[in-house]
Amino acid sequence: MSAPSTPEPVVAIVVAAGSGSRLGASVPKALVEVGGVPLLLRSLARLAAGGAQHAVVVVPPDAADAFAAVLERAPLPVTTVAGGAERQDSVAAGLAALQQMLGEQEVVVLIHDAARAFVPAEVVARVADAVRAGADAVIPTVPVTDSVREVDDDDGSHVIDRARLRSVQTPQGFLRSVIEAAHAELAETGTPVTDDAAAAEYLGHTITLVEGDRRAFKVTEPLDLVLAEALASEEG
Ligand SMILES: Nc1ccn([C@@H]2O[C@H](COP(=O)(O)OP(=O)(O)OP(=O)(O)O)[C@@H](O)[C@H]2O)c(=O)n1
Ligand SMILES: C[C@](O)(CO)[C@H](O)COP(=O)(O)O
């Protein structure tokens, strides 16, 4: 009888290098405090509670000191690396840092937006479990609740069946070998994507959808902070 295989460790890449121009705060969005706690630390706590053992935090190159000061309070071991101009560049920087840390060791990688600071730990665990169960690429999604129309070239529009639509959240989970190869291919071909599942799909991998949660919303605009503050005070 062969010994049971050891499950791969879970490492998070938390992209926090965006400026948050739509939020319009005086500090990078990941450092904006909600209930007195920066969004970045809230995200890290959720990832740790969901099973992440280490995090690579991708930070804005011009704010490294401010991030280092906040990360002294991180709830799990972290490595920091400077991000790039687009989210995709920041993910690539995080993957390169993982390569430096781990060589070729296979791990489950959870790629998460720092701005999705209230993602429940159960969603994090659900994504990691699906990767461990053999899925190539796993994303949490929620149904779309508005009616949706697509604008046509002639200024008209037509309705889209929302029953078939899903909003995509993070963390998105992959075996490291899968997402590293995908991002390398995108860089080679200069192909832009808005999320990492699209990167994996570009290489032909199947995307597995798991149940997300409305609380994993992305803090993007000032109104989102109202909901964030309400969730923070509900938690105490
Ligand atoms: N060059 C970039 C751009 C975005 N992000 C990160 O990717 C996540 C999703 O991006 P978004 O929330 O849209 O953040 P911003 O790009 O900062 O927002 P905006 O477009 O309003 O400037 C965020 O956690 C953000 O910090 C990043 O690491 N590097
Ligand atoms: C990855 C993502 O959160 C999935 O919804 C999203 O694509 C990133 O946000 P952005 O506003 O497109 O940068």
Automatic annotation (TrEMBL):
Pathway: Isoprenoid biosynthesis; isopentenyl diphosphate biosynthesis via DXP pathway; isopentenyl diphosphate from 1-deoxy-D-xylulose 5-phosphate: step 2/6. Signal peptide: none annotated. It comes from the Bacteria. Keywords: Isoprene biosynthesis, Nucleotidyltransferase, Transferase. Gene3D superfamilies: Spore Coat Polysaccharide Biosynthesis Protein SpsA, Chain A (3.90.550.10). CDD domains: CDP-ME_synthetase. It holds the Pfam family IspD. Its EC number is 2.7.7.60. GO terms for molecular function: 2-C-methyl-D-erythritol 4-phosphate cytidylyltransferase activity. It catalyses: 2-C-methyl-D-erythritol 4-phosphate + CTP + H(+) = 4-CDP-2-C-methyl-D-erythritol + diphosphate. The keyword Nucleotidyltransferase applies. One of its GO terms (biological process) is isopentenyl diphosphate biosynthetic process, methylerythritol 4-phosphate pathway. The keyword Magnesium does not apply. The record marks R162, K218 as: Positions MEP for the nucleophilic attack. The record marks R22, K29 as: Transition state stabilizer. Transmembrane segments: none annotated. Belongs to the IspD/TarI cytidylyltransferase family. IspD subfamily. Catalyzes the formation of 4-diphosphocytidyl-2-C-methyl-D-erythritol from CTP and 2-C-methyl-D-erythritol 4-phosphate (MEP). This is 2-C-methyl-D-erythritol 4-phosphate cytidylyltransferase. It comes from Propioniciclava coleopterorum.
